[in-house]
Amino acid sequence: MGLFERYLTVWVGAAIIAGIILGSAIPQLFSVVASLEYAHVNIVIAVLIWLMIFPMMMQIDFSSIKDVGKKPKGLVLTLVINWLVKPFSMAFLGWLFFKVFFASWVEPETASQYIAGMILLGVAPCTAMVFVWSQMTKGDANYTLVQVSVNDLIMIFAFAPIAAFLLGVTDITVPWDTLVLSVVLYVVIPLVAGAITRKALDKSNDHSRLNNLLAKLKPWSIIGLLSTVVLLFGFQAETIIANPEAIVLIAIPLLIQTYAIFAIAYWAAKRMKLAHNIAAPACMIGTSNFFELAVAVAISLFGLHSGAALATVVGVLVEVPVMLSLVWFANRTRHWFDENETASNTISKVHGE
How far from 218 is each of 4, 78, 221, 230, 329, CA to CA, in Å? Predict the structure, then answer.
């Protein structure tokens, strides 16, 4: 594991602090960056997210989907959690906390915005960072590849309808064109570009050229992630400083959602008798969020300084340390799972790391 992955929380924490400090010190600069948008999509953020996502998308080999039949239970688990449980539990918790528990502390319009941001997080299953979580739990990288590939295919068609439905339930009008554009921009195009690049570089199937390019792009991916965090917290710096209690209020249901979803998925994985190297990544995929997409859509739909955007940014703040704690827990409980079936149930297809 590289230096960046090992100290991921430290780097992201430093980027968050830097963003808040810079956003407070030079708000004019961030205002200029915020104004650089087309069709309600911020151009700078889009470029940075592309830098971050593209190398991850290059690692996805959609031809491996045919191998899912060799062990479908792990895939079924993550699909059920991602598409039948998590979006709806997130919407419910958002409503419960901001329309009931915190109703006297938050203005109704602001509460609806926070709920909207939480929903966007809940409807966006993890695509990029899950490879890191899988590696840290010694997961089956090939099976993780299948899970991510299938989730990405489903997300292309399911993200917009589910998000629109749940946002509509909270009485928020959704511009479908912007929502669909964001899915195309941050999921479809990177997926297609990554697949084309992988096919062009990996004709010999020895992964050497692919791995060389991935190694060269990795620093840019790191720069993309940290720069995105700096900008997101820079955009929200004044709001965060003026309303630190808002961060706490948003973080509470997000923390409950994350740990509860993991507990449900982990319990189900154990009952399904999955091997740990498939169970752990399956639960990580079902628990974590594609926060890059959620942030982008929130900004597109509601604006850079909206409560929805703030909620998704708090999702970034919460996710990394929480997921690292779940990685620790998964590794400590490896003995709960039957490891004897690992070798026979591992998908044999190899992809470039």
Answer: 10, 27, 5, 18, 28
Instruction: Say how far apart CA 54 and CA 34 lie, in whole Å.
Output: 23
Alpha helices in 42-175 (DSSP H): 43-58, 73-80, 86-95, 108-122, 130-136, 141-169
Neighbours of 269 (CB within 10 A): 26
Residues 174, 153: Cα–Cα separation, whole Å: 23
Tell me the per-residue pLDDT of 115-172, one tens digit each, with 9 for 90 and over. Answer: 999 999 999 887 767 877 887 888 887 788 788 878 878 887 888 889 888 988 665 5
- State which H helix or E strand residue 263 sits in: helix 244-271
Name the nearest CA neighbour of 296 among 234, 246, 240, 228.
228
Higher pLDDT, 6 or 226: 226
Query: What's the longest Cα–Cα distance across the chain?
Result: 63
Q: Which range, 227-241, 252-266, 304-318, is most confident?
A: 252-266
132 vs 148: CA distance, rounded Å: 12
H-run or E-run covering 129: none
* Better-scored residue on pLDDT, 23 or 136: 23
Number of neighbouring beta carbons within 10 Å of residue 273: 11
The length of the chain, given as a count of residues: 353
Closest CA to 128 of 352, 277, 290, 258: 290
State phi, psi for 37 to the nearest 5 degrees.
-140, 155
Q: How many CB atoms lie within 10 A of CB 9?
A: 13
- C-alpha dihedral sign at 42, 47, 52, 57: positive
Overall pTM > 0.85: no
Do 302 and 173 meet the contact criterion of CB atoms below 8 Å apart?
no
Report the 10 Å Cβ neighbour count for 6. Answer: 11
